């Protein structure tokens, strides 16, 4: 009898614990009933939300938000770059669009090497030689053609109005512009719009961009790839010594791709496929973590950090060797993502001692970071969801600004591996799979993701941050699911990062005590204490059990959730 009583109490306790985990975290971010846009700038979120409010769908809002970011957030928002979109329609259909830049026709494997075979500093990162063929305009027109519901002029007109009205400079923006001003002047000379420095509260107007957008609204996609804009762009890039030709622009196409889809416990995760490494690497990390009950370790505890780090170390080693543009290289996805392979990969992991990256090579089947990309998440009133990450690569891309057209050009060519074994600007070491070839797309880490729970839309999520994108997005999903945080809490929680090489963990400034770091060091982990950068800038939406939406707008930037 006594035993039965004890057993009964235990059962009640256990079921309360299970209930606690199942109980949805109380929202702490903006909550709206119908629809939401979360992006890096309030102006862009407002334009996206207004498009939804006037009856547009998530795809119309994608087009407006993408271009509004080019106006309000030229640091990463762009016409001269590219990106990836993952979507989930309200009927459960999912898909992905690749509007990544690609190498010009004249590109070749050794184009950034000198006669001795050494990488020429700056050639793939700064100025016209770093520019890949831009994909953004092709991307938004693909999205609009396939899924849009409003006329393109109705979507572009609020963006053009924003260009005319101008954008108020925020504190973070003023600091960024000041920080990069010298480099922008170095690349563009003194006649650029950015010659004058600006202060917080100033209004920045880009009349040339207004003209470009008006021509695009009138003439469509071809204006950018074949029309007057194309001709002006090509003669500008070539005058500055770059490689992109009119033929390159004419041949550019965005490509619909099958996303990476996998289960993590009772979640179904839909993320970006190659040429982004985001989905594959996140899939590997989560599947290596899945056999452990990470929620029983405290959030950001020694054990949780060890488990995440060891999974990341192994996944990034594979990323750097096997992944590249799937139209150019065979990626053994069936093996890389199989449970058998991933279980074997973690076979030597123990909580007693760090594995050394020098002992981890790619699987045997045969970084310096900041937040210069941008991500936005959209859910519309019909339940369609869009997750988009878009970039110029570095801050203001190659720093090359076309004053006549009003936008910056990417330096995405640096995402290729210029020479096997030599790290790129994110410290990522590439291999043959990501070597340069004409018309090839460079490997990305962008991870626009959608998560379903119980077959229903649950999270829309993504981040900037170069190589740290994948760990930032994965940790935020774990925060929400395993550690039962609200969307806003999950986004704000302190993050850490490990990418195989260099073999060290990087921590954000807050949230990681000296004793925690000491306990990791005692187990053989290297910690980079010189740098405590921002790791990603996650913008996400969570669908609450009653159907309302909670925004997670990263406090690390000017990011804002807007909805109704
Ligand atoms: O595609 C990529 O992975 C990079 N071009 C992303 C760059 C980025 O996130 C910049 N921010 N640090």
TrEMBL record:
One Pfam family named in its UniProt record: G_glu_transpept
InterPro entries for the chain: GGT_bact (IPR051792), GGT_CS (IPR055262), GGT_lsub (IPR043138), GGT_peptidase (IPR000101), GGT_ssub_C (IPR043137), Ntn_hydrolases_N (IPR029055)
Gene3D superfamilies named among the record's database cross-references: 1.10.246.130, 3.60.20.40
EC number: 2.3.2.2, 3.4.19.13
Pathway: Sulfur metabolism; glutathione metabolism
Any one Gene Ontology molecular-function term assigned to this protein's record: leukotriene C4 gamma-glutamyl transferase activity
Keywords, comma-separated and alphabetical: Acyltransferase, Glutathione biosynthesis, Hydrolase, Transferase, Zymogen
PTM description: Cleaved by autocatalysis into a large and a small subunit.
Catalytic activity entry: an S-substituted glutathione + H2O = an S-substituted L-cysteinylglycine + L-glutamate; an N-terminal (5-L-glutamyl)-[peptide] + an alpha-amino acid = 5-L-glutamyl amino acid + an N-terminal L-alpha-aminoacyl-[peptide]; glutathione + H2O = L-cysteinylglycine + L-glutamate
Superkingdom of the source species: Bacteria
Keyword Acyltransferase in record: yes
UniProt entry tagged with the keyword Zinc-finger: no
SUPFAM superfamilies tied to this protein: N-terminal nucleophile aminohydrolases (Ntn hydrolases)
Similarity section: Belongs to the gamma-glutamyltransferase family.
Subunit comment: This enzyme consists of two polypeptide chains, which are synthesized in precursor form from a single polypeptide.
Protein name: Glutathione hydrolase proenzyme
Annotated source species: Maribacter arenosus
């Amino acid at each position: 009898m006594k035993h039965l009583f004890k057993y009964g109490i235990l059962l009640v306790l256990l079921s309360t614990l299970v209930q606690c985990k199942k109980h949805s975290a109380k929202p702490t971010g903006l909550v709206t009933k119908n629809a939401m846009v979360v992006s890096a700038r309030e102006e862009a979120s407002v334009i996206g939300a207004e498009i939804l409010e006037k009856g547009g769908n998530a795809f119309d809002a994608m087009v407006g938000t993408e271009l509004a970011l080019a106006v309000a957030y030229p640091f990463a928002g762009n016409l001269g770059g590219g990106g990836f979109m993952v979507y989930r329609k309200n009927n459960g259909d999912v898909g992905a669009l690749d509007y990544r830049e690609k190498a010009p026709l004249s590109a070749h494997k050794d184009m950034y090497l000198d006669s001795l075979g050494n990488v020429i500093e700056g050639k793939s990162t700064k100025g016209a030689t770093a520019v890949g063929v831009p994909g953004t305009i092709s991307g938004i027109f693909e999205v609009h053609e396939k899924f849009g519901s409003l006329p393109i002029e109705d979507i572009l007109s609020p963006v053009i109005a924003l260009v005319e009205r101008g954008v108020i400079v925020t504190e973070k923006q003023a600091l960024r512009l000041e920080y990069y001003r010298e480099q922008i002047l170095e690349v563009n000379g003194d006649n650029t719009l950015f010659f004058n420095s600006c202060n917080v509260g100033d209004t920045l107007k880009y009349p040339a961009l207004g003209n470009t957008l008006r021509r695009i609204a009138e003439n469509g996609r071809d204006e950018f790839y074949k029309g007057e804009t194309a001709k002006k762009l090509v003669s500008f890039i070539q005058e500055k010594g770059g490689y992109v030709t009119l033929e390159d622009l004419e041949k550019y196409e965005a490509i619909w791709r099958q996303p990476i889809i996998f289960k993590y416990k009772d979640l179904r995760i839909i993320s970006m496929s190659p040429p982004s490494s985001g989905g594959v690497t996140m899939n590997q990390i989560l599947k290596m973590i899945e056999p452990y009950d990470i929620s029983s370790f405290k959030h950001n505890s020694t054990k949780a950090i060890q488990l995440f780090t060891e999974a990341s170390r192994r996944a990034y080693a594979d990323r750097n060797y096997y992944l590249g543009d799937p139209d150019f290289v065979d990626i053994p996805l069936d093996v890389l993502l199989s449970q058998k392979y991933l279980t074997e990969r973690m076979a030597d992991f123990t909580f007693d001692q760090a594995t050394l990256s020098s002992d981890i090579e790619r699987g045997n089947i045969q970084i310096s970071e900041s937040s210069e990309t941008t991500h936005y998440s959209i859910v519309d009133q019909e339940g369609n969801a869009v997750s988009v990450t878009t970039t110029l690569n570095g801050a203001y891309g190659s720093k090359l600004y076309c004053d006549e057209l009003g936008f910056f050009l990417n330096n995405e060519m640096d995402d290729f591996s210029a020479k096997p074994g030599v790290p790129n600007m994110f410290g990522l070491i590439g291999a043959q799979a990501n070597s340069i070839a004409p018309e090839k797309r460079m490997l990305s880490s962008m991870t626009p993701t959608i998560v379903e729970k119980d077959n229903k839309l649950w999270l829309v999520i993504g981040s900037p941050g170069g190589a740290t994108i994948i760990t930032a997005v994965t940790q935020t999903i774990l925060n929400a699911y395993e550690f039962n945080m609200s969307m806003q809490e999950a986004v704000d929680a302190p993050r850490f990062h490990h990418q195989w090489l260099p073999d060290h963990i990087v921590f954000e400034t807050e949230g990681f005590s000296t004793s925690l770091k000491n306990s990791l060091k005692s187990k053989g982990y290297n910690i980079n204490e010189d740098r405590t950068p921002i790791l990603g800038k996650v913008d996400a939406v969570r669908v609450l059990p009653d159907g309302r939406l909670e925004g997670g707008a990263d406090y690390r930037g000017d990011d804002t959730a807007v909805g109704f």
